[in-house]
Write a structure and sequence with these properties.
globular; eight-stranded parallel barrel; about 290 residues; alpha/beta
């Protein structure tokens, strides 16, 4: 029941000079990704600034991506919220407009218990038929989905995997051990793609794929085809770029990088600001090597 194997891009949401969604640039980005072997597009995730989109904007972006992709690769919609009813509403609407799967981040700010996580995800899964990926990113949400909780959720028919950003290979190994190979694990940290593949991961949901989609795809493809040395070579080659892309809160640097390479994606919405002068210089230096 895997949604995809390979590199899924956590695509940015472009804005114009009036801070409105720039669908023309979004179309350019989609075609850029399909031409460069991106295996799936994740719309309205963290990198897509979902928390500053209205619900109407959110659904319009997912609908546009689905229609532009037109079945060529899977489209996964970010539908997480710290309000379970809101997450259900977003999930239902994204299913209606044709998304192929859902990426659901853990509740943030209000947090919850592990029991609350199980009830939250189970409630969402009961209202849609689409496959669901848990999105565990404790550094942003303040909440870690423990392996035993992931195992309990893996028993829910349409909860089929996890985007893991916990930063602990021991935790990833425990998830794989508990849930088995039918439960899909994706790296959510660009510097951990190969390590997670080595534990049985299916690929990555990537930020750096916004600017180097083919190379990100290749890390996974080479590994799956048995050329681990080549996969490792690419992973290590871009470590400095990855560090620079996370020098400030995502998606500040990746949007600036896209602007630098000629895609006019605009600025982030407040409270995220433009990249700092020092980090801009570091980023420009890294971009010059691409």
């Amino acid at each position: 029941m895997s949604i995809f194997t390979g590199s899924g891009v956590a695509i940015v949401t472009p804005f114009d000079e009036n801070d409105s969604i720039n669908f023309g640039v979004l179309e350019e980005l989609i075609e850029f990704h399909i031409e460069n072997k991106t295996d799936a597009i994740i719309a309205c995730g963290t990198t897509g600034e979902s928390v500053t989109l209205t619900e109407k904007e959110h659904i319009s972006v997912v609908k546009f991506v689905v229609e532009q992709v037109n079945g060529r690769i899977p489209v996964i919609a970010g539908t997480g919220s710290n309000n379970t009813k809101h997450a259900i509403s977003l999930s239902e609407e994204c299913e209606k407009v044709g998304a192929n799967g859902l990426l659901v981040v853990t509740p943030y700010y209000n947090k919850t218990t592990q029991k609350g996580l199980i009830e939250h995800y189970t409630a969402i899964a009961s209202r849609v038929t689409l496959p669901i990926l848990i999105y565990n990113v404790p550094s942003r949400t303040g909440l870690n989905v423990l392996p035993k909780t992931t195992y309990e959720l893996s028993k829910v028919k349409n909860i089929i995997g996890i985007k893991e950003c916990c930063g602990s290979m021991a935790q990833v190994a425990e998830i794989v051990s508990l849930c088995g190979e039918d439960f899909d694990v994706y790296s959510g940290n660009d510097d951990e793609i190969l390590p997670i593949l080595s534990l049985g991961g299916k690929g990555a949901i990537s930020v750096m794929a916004n600017i180097i989609p083919r190379q990100t795809h290749d890390i996974v493809e080479y590994y799956i085809k048995g050329n681990i040395a080549k996969s490792r070579e690419i992973q290590l080659k871009y470590l400095k770029l990855i560090k620079t892309l996370f020098s400030e809160p995502n998606p500040i640097p990746i949007k600036e990088a896209l602007n630098m390479i000629g895609y006019n994606v605009g600025k982030c919405r407040l409270p995220l600001t433009s990249i700092g002068e020092e980090n801009e210089k570091l980023l420009r230096d890294e971009i010059s090597y691409l």
